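To the team - zinc ion complex, inputs and output below.
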Amino acid sequence: MDQDVLDAVRLLRGHLRELVEARRVAVLDGRLAGVLSLAEQDSEAALPELAGVLSGEPELENWVARVLEDPHKRPPALQARSERAPDRLPGTGEPVPALRYECPLGDYAWYRLTVGERVRKCPTHRLLLVAASG
Ligand SMILES: [Zn+2]
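Output:
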């Protein structure tokens, strides 16, 4: 499976809460974690597995497609924000740059969109996410 697709799946895990009802997050996250661990052993088998998770979830499928279309592979909410940036009010200062955080073991990624959000833990490893460089 393509590295960009794998990365989009890691990022999808981090942004599930914005995309599906709260009660569905844990189940979907577990299935996506399964896709990623399968990909480590058998990259070819992971793609149909991912298709299986995304089928019947058009919003998630669309979200992944939009991440893959972005040259920087960012979540759609972040793509929209940088496009809107020129019309922010004068005197409000620069928007806080969104920072990417990752699980130290590499299976979960998330962009912190506002300073008020607490940095999370990877639901698989229970490790606090770390800021990614670059
Ligand atoms: Zn992890």
